[in-house]
Amino acid sequence: MVLLHTALRVRVPTGAFVIETMWPSPPGDPAERGVVVQAPVFSKWFSGTRVFRYEVRRWLDGTIPDIGHAIGGPRRLDHSAARARRLLDSVEAVPALTWGRDRSGVGDMWNSNSVIAWLLARCGLDMGEIHPPPGCRAPGWAAGVAVAASAAGITAA
Fold first, then answer.
1. Are 58 and 33 in contact (CB under 8 A)?
2. Contact 66, 73 (CB under 8 A)
3. Nearest 5°: CA angle at 153, between 152 and 155?
4. Per the domain annotation, does 90 fall within a domain?
């Protein structure tokens, strides 16, 4: 079984963006890395230290250095420019939940997969149609779907 770290490449007429969750590196101005959300890892008490924080990036012309190692290669999820714009506009609203904790109550911890699932659900994609490649798992995915559904006023199963 393979564990996945998800990231998105989103193209709109104004450019191509990479959406991903990373540790805060390199040091320097977070805006240069496209950081729009910062949140704690494991405990908010330690989040003043970089190693106990993560950041969500919406990075114009960003790169995914290990994309060549993506199992099954990149997958196109949608062709709608309006949906892509809605997704990009939603990145700043990603909940700054504590990484590694189950705040959704669905038995799944919040992590990088949660952030991507949350964004995809919020932009209106059918989450029942999006799955990891065979033999892989994406822990945190259910947490992202559940938090997005609860924020939309929907009771998650």
1. no
2. no
3. 110
4. yes
Structural domain that includes position 43: 2-151
Determine the straight-line distance between the first and last CA of the chain, rounded to whole angstroms: 25
Residue labelled with tokens 């959704």: 104
What's the domain count of the chain? 1
- DSSP letter string over 56-121? EEEEET---TTGGG-TT--------HHHHHHHHHHGGGS--PPBT---SSSS---SHHHHHHHHHH
17 by DSSP, 3-state: which? strand
**157 lies in a domain?**
no
pTM for the model stands at 0.86
pLDDT in tens, 47-85: 666 667 889 999 999 888 778 777 777 788 888 999 999
Task: Identify whether 156 is part of a domain.
Answer: no
The token duo for 136 is 């892989």
